[in-house]
Design brief:
The protein has about 750 residues and is of the alpha/beta class. It folds into 3 domains: about 300 residues, 2-Layer Sandwich (Aconitase, domain 3); about 170 residues, Aconitase, domain 3 (2-Layer Sandwich); about 200 residues, Aconitase, domain 4, CATH 3.20.19. It has 26 helices and 30 strands. The strands form 8 sheets. A 7-stranded mixed β-barrel has the order 22-25-26-27-30-29-28. Strands 6-5-2-3-4-21 form a 6-stranded mixed beta sheet, sandwiched between helices. The longest helix is centred in the N-terminal third of the chain and has 22 residues. It is globular, with a radius of gyration of 25 Å.
Length: about 750
Amino acid sequence: MAFDIDMIKKVYSQMAERVDKAREITGKPLTLSEKILYSHLWDGNPNKAFQRGKDYVDFAPDRIACQDATAQMALLQFMQAGKKTVAVPTTVHCDHLIQAKQGAAPDLKRANETSNEVFDFLESVSNKYGIGFWKPGAGIIHQVVLENYAFPGGMMIGTDSHTVNAGGLGMVAIGVGGADAVDVMAGMAWELKFPKLIGVKLTGELNGWTASKDVILKVAGILTVKGGTGAIVEYFGPGAKNLSCTGKGTICNMGAEIGATTSTFGYDDAMERFLRATDREDIADEANKIREYLTGDDEVYANPEKYFDQVIEINLSTLRPHLNGPFTPDLATPVGELGEKAKKNDWPIKVDWGLIGSCTNSSYEDLTRAASIAQQAIDKKLKPKSDFGINPGSEQIRFTAERDGLLNVFENLGATIFTNACGPCIGQWDRSDRKGDEKNTIVHSFNRNFSKRADGNPNTHAFVGSPEMVAAIAISGRLDFDPMNDTLLNEDGQEVKLDEPRGLELPPKGFEVDDNGYLAPREDGSSVEVKVAKDSERLQLLEPFVPIKDSNLQGVKLLIKAFGKCTTDHISMAGPWLRYRGHLDNIANNTLIGAVNAFNKKTNFVKNQLTGEYGGVPDVQREYKAKGIKTIVVGDHNYGEGSSREHAAMQPRFLGVAAVLVKSFARIHETNLKKQGMLGLTFANEADYDLIQEDDTFNFVDIADFSENKPLTIEIVHKDGSKNTIKVNHTYNDAQIKWYREGSALNLIKKQNA
């Protein structure tokens, strides 16, 4: 039986009325995305038509999911909200703080020893406030959600950008910062600008070496890392119905890499099969009663150009396998063309590692397709030229895969089976074969491949592909290997060719598990005591942020002018820093250390205007903070791209950064800045970025008149006394300006609850 079935029945009982009303008000047929959005309005039944990309709308999400790295800060904030229990079903999943090194058992044991303080904190907070808790080793948050909590037509938010994975089961699932999650946990509305809509029509059927992963790799190449910003991507067409549910999840998962608000598919037979296979027949039965409301209207899909802001069409029958990268997930290359491209760009051809898993590709189907290639290598006497690492998506998948002999196939090939956790995908990888900054190549089935992402080495060239393609490339040991056309020399000196991968959508004998790792909370947690040691290096109770006064915004110093790509990994690195995610002061020591200084092209090396000397970004900023001087960060396009990491906003705020001025923002990061009471601004004229000099001081001329739809004026004072006056834009509405004036959104919640 499904979790929270009464809540799901309530959603379904209201959906038809609300969708019918939305059709009446808008005067048109609706996409699936619109049906879900209009049926989850905070005020209930729709009473107006919203303008895409313009109107801010209050929503009522059905549930929340948090992973351990972000849950710490989210729950530390929730503890300040003055509530006895969470207002909507919420879960915490311990998957980020487990480092991949030796293998599942020793790695999990070590994680429980080194992070027990954090796990104990999360378990106790979950117990106290009615939150479901998934133990370390239970699985990767998004795969666990897909198997247990996702349901067609629902809306959820999660404190991880890949929450969007649940779109594979027909949800509108959106990654947010912890402060957004706290709003909903506290019983408040969740605000989002009504998204634009991108339709992707899929025709044909996948065949041969092409996998679901190749759909999103192709889309990423078309839309780039910012082409989906502010939009929901909705997949439809006969090709969409030919994809498995977990394949749909893979596509939606990596939609985060094109900046999309989320991605989704309409309810179909594949979703029903997955629901029934994961012991949720009750949801499937309820969904079937309102089936037409859980997908887009026929008129929409027949004439998509009339109803979507942009339409892309992909024929799955002719789609080629891709490997995307290095250093960015949108650099798309068909496999057969990669060798020539690699030689031209001096990318290392030798492949050292093939990594399969992560929240993107760790389903039973993924493992079977990759295992079919691994078994061929054994049968054809091919010795892998690269190391192998496997991360199953959940304990249910691991147990079932072990029962069915899949893991044994990988182990016979010399693979290391890591814990059911994120591992190398988020930098939790103790990679023993590489030290320093040696140039090398790896291939993986993950979603992100930014510089330093997997192993901390800026010269690791990471390429993203399907699990079966990763397996083939790793066996060959060469980036230029094309399994569709090339042969390999086996141990007998014979040339052999790999056959096409074969996989199973679902386990023929069903899923099985002894202990899925779930701990239900107490019915009454009022007596549970949450302990945080005062001398803890891992956890720190929060102090409310003090509002930034208008007088503080005169004489603002430049902290750093970031050059080029500046993701949340650059602003607040993961990897070894994950251990400090619950301690704001300690993790602030990594603030912007990965950002490239535009004036010297170095990282973590900026000028201190007080001394004239250069130092690390956090060190210089702490000196400004000690003197009561506010600072500004200047950046390029798509600033804050990447994960939902609210630390990338909280850390600068904690250290005294008042404003971030960029050419454009990634959606989640801009919202996070607003939530933490900072100014997130964009150049009215992008060329003004070039005016910023290393010793500049900034005066916010009209900050006292900060209001909705009104640009701000900034006076830039240069070292030689010359000045430039520029206009900057913002997207703050009246409610968000109140967050800023109160010091943070959380401060406003506490004030309203007082």
